[in-house]
Amino acid sequence: MGRFYNEQGALLGDFIMEETGKKRYTIDDVARELGLSKTTVSRAISGKGRISQATREKVLACVERNDYRPNVVAQGLAQRRTYNIGLLLPTDYTDIDFPFFKECMSGICAKAAQHNYDIIISMIDGKDFTQLQRLIANRKVDGVIVTRVLVNSSVRHYLKEKNVPFVAIGTPDVEEPGLVWIDNQNREGSRELTGILLMKGLRHLALLGGSRAHLVTKSRLQGYEDAHGDYHVHVDDSLVFMEMDSYAKVAKAADQILESGADGIVCMDDIITNMLLGCLRERRVEIPRNIRVASLYDSALLEYYIPAVTSLHFNTKSLGMNACQLLLEQLGEKVDGEFVPLNYQVILRESTK
After folding, report:
1. Axis crossing angle, helix 38-46 with helix 27-34, rounded to the nearest 10
2. What is the pLDDT of residue 286?
3. If you write DSSP's letter for every residue of 216-264 in order, what string do you get?
4. Is 339's pLDDT higher than 50?
5. CA dihedral of 8, 11, 17, 22, whole degrees rounded to 10
6. Contacts of 317 by beta carbon, 8 Å cutoff, 6+ apart
7. Confidence of residue 6 (pLDDT cuts 50, 70, 90)
8. CA distance readout (Å), 237 to 205, 208, 224, 251
9. Other CB atoms within 10 Å distance of the CB of residue 222
């Protein structure tokens, strides 16, 4: 830190010294060098307000020449912005969710960084969201991304009450006026993949799923049921297993499935699939010779398994980027680029041949 003094020894201001010893330029310095007002310089940098093209180019050239970087904190105070986005993760986050959240968060952070926003993570569940309330009460975020919509979630209602801009990732359980949400095509993908297995002649398909409290589970279950309806095949409820959040639960379900004589197993995500594969390997059950296996979420775990597992592939990073873009638009930002299409791809591999 350095300081300016006049001849009488009075403090005029501070400046920051870089590691090179070079003074960091401020908006005052740019204005003084060009003989312009700070307002004009600010308008030239932000692109807002009426100034001539020649003036704008002159300011931008000076900014580039002197490596001027706007003070984001000062900008935020002036505009009543924090330039922070709240990212809500569930407290019941487990290894099962890791691939999805990692990719989704990567997309959110990438899009936020393009517009000079930072991410603040808050852990919540369906009932206790004290951290979120603290963020809102202390005005630490400008908007919020809810990364997984919970069934009957009170979080959405709280954010609407407080007039906080937010985007929900996940298909809502009921239509809500003004709710902005985005999701992968989980129901459609589940329907198509299950339909392909039924088309291959499988008639006793078991299903291993996650928590019923999550709407993604509901969507995938609906897709599984839709496909059975399309092919006029009865859904055997005794072959549908939910809350598969541990190896012990998956092992118990696998024993019942094998005893029932099922000809295929559909898992809702790659982690459940990986646990199932371990169970089948222990029981010396050969895939696909003895039973066929497919996953409604793809990852390297399944791609490089022997035999490789038929899966649904989603571009989850793009889902995160699109969600962040929707929120930035609510915050009044000019967002460059268009939405990336959120399509899915059924990848047929050896496990269902």
Report:
1. 110
2. 96
3. HHHHHHHHHHHHHHHTT----GGGEE----SHHHHHHHHHHHHHHT-SE
4. yes
5. -40
6. 103, 104, 106, 107, 110
7. very low
8. 10, 12, 12, 18
9. 16
For 115-144, the pLDDT digits (tens) are 889 999 888 876 777 888 888 888 899 999
**Phi, psi torsion values for 154, nearest 5 degrees:** -90, -10
pLDDT at residue 326 greater than cutoff 70: yes
For residue 102, what pLDDT is reported?
Answer: 84
- Sequence-distant (6+) residues with CB within 8 A of 273 are 208, 267, 293, 295, 301, 302, 309, 311
143: which strand partners? 85
Q: What is the DSSP string of 264-332?
A: EEEESSHHHHHHHHHHHHHTT--TTTT-EEEESS--HHHHTSSSPPEEEEE-HHHHHHHHHHHHHHHTT
pLDDT in tens, 72-123: 444 544 456 789 999 988 776 555 566 788 889 999 999 999 888 999 988 8
Q: How buried is 16 (Cβ within 10 angstroms: 0-12 exposed, 13-18 middle, 19+ buried)?
A: exposed
Beta-bridged to residue 182, according to DSSP, are 169
Structure token digits, residue 230? 């399309």
Using only C-alpha atoms, the chain has a radius of gyration, in whole angstroms, of: 27
Edge to edge, what strands does the sheet with 344-347 contain? Answer: 240-241, 205-208, 264-267, 292-295, 310-314, 344-347
Residue carrying the six token digits 């902005």: 180
Asked if residue 61 lies in contact with residue 25, where contact means CB atoms within 8 angstroms, the answer is no
What pTM did the predictor assign? 0.71
C-beta of residue 175 within 8 angstroms of C-beta of residue 210:
no
